Inverse folding.
């Protein structure tokens, strides 16, 4: 997220200055031009808030080097001069980009904040403590800017949402909402629980799917190297002396010749599909299709599906305050699942049915086709008894317990399956090598 400042003139010639936040300079520039056209302003310039490196000193003290975000050098220079420093130099940072802080750092910030709030420590003091102790530069700078904005009296929700690219949309929304809720500690605890659960699920899913796939891919490359390079060097010696090759050795050599004669084609079909799939999955349509397929694949798909419902229910429980205000919690909960298909079904099927037709929560959820029969049944009971909020929490806890237990079993099965594949490949290579070793060259005759 970047911040832009524009200077313009009103139709009566009066100067006006404004700031906007955007995900990119291009997006921000487009917003500025739309604003200028709407209010019939004459645009003078657009400035981007950048990082400046300064060097200052006070009296005979040792010079200090630091960084400050501002729209221009003059702003930094004037601010430091007002503080009584002698400004030696102010230069724009050459490589002005920041990596997103790790999710673990964000989780630690939210978790520690919740614990300190339970001890009745003021939020301003919590921010000051954490800013001074944080080591991650990107998160530290972000919290510093948020703290400054909040001290100026800016709206907490608007302030946090300005940095949704750092925290993530759901986390930024929840942290911004907490200050208005009157129960900051509970919302921070719920957010920490959500972040922790999502991180653990991704870690377990990586163990169940991604790590085995990488292992198989590396094994595939190792076999290609053996068959395409190492094996032919030995086998072709026998051909050179006119020795007849055994069946497996001959077949392996034929496969090796095919690989060598079509090296570029084999390389293309080995590398291109994963890259193409990765690039496709990054597009809006691709992510939608991939997310839809993920919840339908055998065994693992069921776990992913139930985890999405768990996340939805946990967030819905945190935000839900009554049937009159259920639309916004449902929308935010759908976005929190981070599954475009699940989110699409909620936003385009359930919410319109509730708004336009006045249909109840259970019937609207059932029409989406993304909730299990168990979830629909529990929501139906909760809606009838007026305990839908508690029902959502019970569902979240139930699916958390079930998915954690089943995922551990799946990881063990996958590990056994991968071990068996490696064993079969090694046995096949050993048999081919053993057969080659049994070849007896003909005794030369005088």
């Amino acid at each position: 997220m970047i911040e832009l400042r524009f200077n313009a003139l009103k139709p009566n010639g009066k100067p006006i200055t404004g700031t906007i936040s955007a995900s990119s300079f291009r997006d921000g520039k487009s917003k500025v031009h739309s604003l200028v056209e709407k209010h019939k302003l004459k645009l003078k310039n657009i400035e981007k808030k950048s990082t400046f490196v300064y060097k200052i000193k006070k009296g005979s003290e040792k010079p200090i080097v630091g960084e400050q975000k501002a729209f221009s050098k003059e702003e930094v220079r004037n601010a430091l001069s007002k503080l009584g420093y002698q400004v030696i130099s102010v230069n724009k940072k050459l490589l002005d980009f920041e990596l997103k802080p790790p999710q673990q750092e964000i989780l630690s910030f939210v978790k520690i904040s919740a614990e300190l709030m339970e001890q009745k420590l003021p939020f301003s003091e919590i921010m000051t403590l954490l800013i001074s102790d944080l080591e991650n530069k990107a998160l530290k700078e972000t919290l510093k800017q948020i703290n400054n904005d909040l001290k100026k009296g800016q709206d907490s929700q608007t302030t946090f949402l300005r940095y949704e690219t750092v925290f993530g949309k759901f986390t930024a929304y929840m942290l911004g909402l907490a200050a208005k809720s009157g129960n900051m500690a509970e919302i921070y605890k719920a957010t920490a629980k959500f972040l922790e659960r999502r991180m653990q699920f991704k870690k377990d899913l990586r163990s169940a799917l991604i790590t085995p796939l990488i292992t198989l891919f590396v094994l595939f490359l190792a076999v290609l190297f053996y068959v395409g390079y190492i094996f032919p060097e030995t086998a072709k010696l026998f051909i050179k002396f006119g020795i007849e090759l055994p069946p497996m050795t001959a077949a392996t050599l034929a496969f090796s010749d095919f690989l060598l004669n079509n090296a570029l084609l084999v390389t293309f079909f080995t590398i291109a599909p994963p890259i193409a799939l990765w690039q496709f999955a990054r597009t809006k349509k691709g992510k939608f299709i991939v997310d839809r397929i993920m919840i339908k694949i055998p065994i693992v798909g069921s776990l992913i599906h139930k985890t999405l419902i768990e996340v939805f229910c946990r967030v819905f429980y945190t935000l839900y305050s009554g049937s009159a205000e259920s639309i916004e919690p449902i929308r935010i909960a759908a976005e929190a699942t981070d599954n475009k298909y699940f989110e699409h079904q909620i936003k385009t099927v359930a919410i319109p049915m509730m708004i336009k037709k006045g249909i109840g929560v259970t019937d609207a959820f059932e029409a989406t086709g993304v909730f299990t029969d168990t979830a629909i049944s529990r929501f139906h009971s909760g809606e009838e008894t007026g305990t839908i909020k508690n029902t959502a929490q019970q569902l979240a806890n139930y699916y958390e317990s079930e998915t954690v237990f089943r995922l551990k079993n799946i990881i063990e099965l996958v590990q056994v399956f991968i071990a068996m594949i490696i064993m079969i490949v090694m046995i096949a290579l050993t048999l081919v090598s053993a057969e080659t070793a049994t070849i007896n060259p003909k005794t030369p005759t005088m």
User: Anything to note?
Assistant: The mean pLDDT is 83. The longest strand covers residues 2-9. The two ends are 85 Å apart (CA to CA). Residues 184-240 form the longest helix (57 residues).
